[in-house]
Amino acid sequence: MKTVNRYEDVKRIFESQGGIATTADMLRERVHSSYIARLLDEGHIARIKRGVYEWLSEGSKDDLEIIARLLPESTICMESALHYYGYIDRTPSVWHVAVNKHINKKKIKLAYPPIKVHFWVPRILDLGAARGEVGGAAIRIYDRDRTICDVTRHSTRIDREILNQAIRAYASDPRKNIRQLMLYATALRIQRKVERLVGMWLW
């Protein structure tokens, strides 16, 4: 069956949804599934996860913006937060996000962008959570001080060069808050480790 060209109609759907739309959004506007497949084939849209698409004709969205839209309950953390703050120059091969360990695992499956999920207990999940911005879109991300605590806490899982670069960058950042850093370290029960690994660059 020949598909009707509804390019402008579909474009408006995506624009009204901030550049990301679902199959349900399009079917609700009587856009046939065969036309969705055609838009995929022609490279106008890309599948992010099952039933969720990104509009590509005006350039793809930033990975962090996609994560913020599709996983609003997640918090950018670890190397991804380090990269956001400019503490490391190496772009992570996967984006690190923290979520409640009790979350429904089906909610956090993405075909793109690649993510590494950290399942954390509620007690520490919101500690140091802040707001950031990417491409005009708000994202949830741990602040500088919590991020340094996290990478220190999990230092054995992180490349030593990356860890050292991040700590040195943090130490020279005028926006750091050492008092807050130590409050987080105490709450995370890593005060001595932070004093040993980070303190040498601060005092």
Question: How would you summarize the topology of this molecule?
Answer:
Blueprint: H1 7-16, E1 20-22, H2 23-28, H3 33-41, E2 45-49, E3 52-55, H4 63-70, E4 75-76, H5 78-84, E5 95-100, E6 115-120, H6 122-125, E7 129-134, E8 137-142, H7 144-153, H8 160-171, H9 178-187, H10 191-197, H11 199-202
Parallel strand pairs: 5-6
Antiparallel strand pairs: 1-3, 2-3, 4-5, 7-8
Helix pairs in contact: 5-7, 7-8, 7-9, 9-10
Structure characterization notes:
Helix content is 43%, strand content 19%. By secondary structure, it is an alpha+beta fold. The chain folds into two domains: 49 residues, no CATH class; 139 residues, Beta Polymerase, domain 2 (2-Layer Sandwich). The strands form three sheets. A three-stranded antiparallel sheet has the order 1-3-2. Strand 2 and strand 3 form a beta hairpin. Helix 9 crosses helix 10. The radius of gyration is 20 Å and the shape is elongated. The chain starts with 6 loop residues before the first helix and ends with a helix. The model has no long low-confidence stretch (mean pLDDT 88).
- N-to-C SSE string, H for helix and E for strand: HEHHEEHEHEEHEEHHHHH
Biggest sheet: strands side by side, in what order? Answer: 1-3-2
What can be said about the biggest beta sheet? 3 strands, antiparallel
| CATH-defined fold name of the largest domain | Beta Polymerase, domain 2
CATH architecture classification name of the largest domain:
2-Layer Sandwich
Low-confidence stretches: none
Evaluate the radius of gyration.
Answer: 20 Å
Instruction: Output mean pLDDT.
Output: 88
CATH C-level name of the largest domain: Alpha Beta
Helix percentage range: 40-55%
Count, helices: 11
Q: Strand fraction band?
A: 15-25%
- Choose one word for the global shape: elongated
Gap from first CA to last CA: 72 Å
Alpha-beta classification: alpha+beta
Integer tally of domains: 2
Strand elements, count: 8
